[in-house]
């Protein structure tokens, strides 16, 4: 499992951008994790699935609501990673009104999740292999803090916890 001090794994996530601009085209766009994180402080949180109850009601909204506070704490970008395709992540971004506050990044084949060692096997529930619920503060591609949830929990990966760590 990835730990504090480790570099994020080499992987490509996919992002659906609603509007053209800043060199981004509409449609699924590859995001090279190493290049996208280089020289930045990233508040990254991951969760089992788009449109799932806890993720939609608590996890994403907390980060959207605290966007300004994260910026004030020196965070350049907020990333949400889920084992879903870019189209689903784009639809969820519209539903959650993330706008330019949270980058909704799809890990469609769970390559990033597997490389971090933070997968969750929900095959028995019809969801296959997903990402565990966690958050991390990433500085220039390296993990500065890591908060991994226990099974079925939502206690340490919330926006307030990661924001306190970003301020600290």
UniProtKB/TrEMBL annotation:
Pfam families: Redoxin (PF08534). One of its GO terms (biological process) is cellular response to oxidative stress. One of its GO terms (molecular function) is thioredoxin peroxidase activity. Its EC number is 1.11.1.27. The keyword Oxidoreductase applies. One of its GO terms (cellular component) is cytoplasm. Signal peptide: none annotated. It comes from the Bacteria. The active site is at 55 (cysteine sulfenic acid (-soh) intermediate). It catalyses: a hydroperoxide + 2 glutathione = an alcohol + glutathione disulfide + H2O. Keywords: Antioxidant, Oxidoreductase, Peroxidase, Redox-active center. The keyword Oxidoreductase applies. Residues 2-168 form the Thioredoxin domain. Belongs to the peroxiredoxin family. Prx5 subfamily. Thiol-specific peroxidase that catalyzes the reduction of hydrogen peroxide and organic hydroperoxides to water and alcohols, respectively. Plays a role in cell protection against oxidative stress by detoxifying peroxides. This is Glutathione-dependent peroxiredoxin. It comes from Limnohabitans parvus II-B4.
